[in-house]
Design goal:
By secondary structure, the chain is mainly α. The protein has helices at 12-32, 50-53, 61-76, 82-115, 123-131, 133-137, 146-162, 165-178, 183-198, 200-203, 213-229, 233-241, 243-262, 272-296, 305-330, 337-359, 384-409, 432-461, 464-486, 506-514, 521-541, 555-587.
Amino acid sequence: MSDSPAPSMRRNDLDWIRVSAFGLLILYHVALVYAPYDWHIHSAHTFPWLHEALLLTNPWRLTLLFLVSGAALRFMTARRTAAQTLKARAERLIPPLLFGALVLVPIQSWVEALDKGGFTGNFADWLWHEFGPAGLADGVPVNHLWFIVYIAVYSLVAVALMTRPALMARAEAWLVRNTAGWRILVVPLVYLIVIRIVLFPIFGITNKLTWDFYNHFLSLGAFLFGFLIVGHQGVWAELERRRHLSLIVALIALPIMMWQAAHPGGGTWFGVPRAVVFAIDQWAVITAILGYGSRYLRKTPGPALPYLVDATFPLYLAHQTVLVVAVWFIRPANLPAPLEAACLVGVTFGISLLIYEVVRRIPLIRPLWGLKPFPAPVGRPRYHRRRRLLMIGMGAPVLALTAVLIGVATWPGFDHARQYLSELGGASAPMPLIFNGGVFIAGAMCIAAGVGFGLAINALTGRWFVAGLTAVVFTLAGIGLAASSLYPWPDPRHMAINLGLGIQLAPLLLLWGLWSHVDMKRLKIFLAVVFVAMAVLTAFTYHLVLPGTVNDANVGWWERGYAIILVGWVGIAAFVIERRLKAHAGRD
């Protein structure tokens, strides 16, 4: 009987491990905000004990990710030649790397430069600083995207190995033979100890491809290990058999490693004892995770796994930029550290997932976020135009929020309590083009969403009259937004934005249009609540009730709440109705 499983077999345990490791990475980066390390941005709270606490994951997290990534590449090669594998890797890795380096990383780099006092200009100035001749001469920073660079280069090594099948077979056989039985715990451990003692003191870890030799011996070694052994059941059987021992060793090594890191004498004997314990913890945790995962998760896909696997790459791309910006905005509130950390975790995961939910529905930008293109449809799917218009509606609130956040970030000292959002596009704003451009595009997206809502109502219920009214209300709102951005306040023509106030009726119109539809009860309740909330806020902000509640000292916060509801509900309603159209098309 063959020792290797079918190469096309999906390994649920490795998928769970990869998803969990990336989720842990986000929590790790939140912890770095409070740790005594030179990270991109810090909280006002710093905890020295995190120096030791972060050793819970530091030794093994990325090494495990490289190992799993190598295994995933091997599965990808099951039905591909070396050239096809190389093409697939390039299509998956190069677009998000370029997009991240040109769009996502500059945002976090700019915030970091402002925070550390090394830069005082606006974002446009920073882009020229980064991508002008002097900036390009210093290299383009990739920050957390170094992992993608390394995966791309290591994939080239694996593809080169594929072109020498005899050599690859010998390497695989040697590795399997020398990790049989007890060797699975000892042989890789000896390798890790040697490179930790010999290479780490010289090179450290730089995350710079051209001068990171310890990291290459560690990460490329793990990548090729996963690539070569993933198909051999004997290796996995040994990992399962020795999982309890691995866990015990890891639990013993961890406190010793923490003590060595905290104690002034922990680096004695040229750091050799510390390197040995570090490597023991590193490999013991990895083998324990692989063993327990293979034992209990291999045949456990779970309903959430396909979604999480698909979301992992976009979340990885987005999370650090979201986190850095979140710290920049949340830190001035001077929240207690536990509450601030909880906010950072929630905002980072929440906004990153929101980004994923938007981009995964837009075919043109899926590859930029590391997602595979949609498969070519057989024939033309029903309601494809309506659904695409609604997808635009999902993106409108995100774009509007992004324009506001960037506009505020470019205006130090912007007073949220007293200043209106429209001032971000006025003459006194440092960079009015960002806000006005975002609002103009959001207005155009609002028009498209209105057409999508109207067509969707007509498709689901046949109520063409209310469908037309809904489209008209959204169109007027979009025109008002676009016009207000072309004529910033205090230009009198800016008041064209009042055309957008009719969108307050849109939830009621949607509720009317969908009333006869037996499904979507929760959406109907949501639309009713939105309409009531906007009516209440309107009554307060226009002083129709309790005059004086809204005043010059707090009017900005009232406007923020009103704007969030006014714009945000559109994305939620568009998402729910687009899903209903998809299901409706499937039934037909």
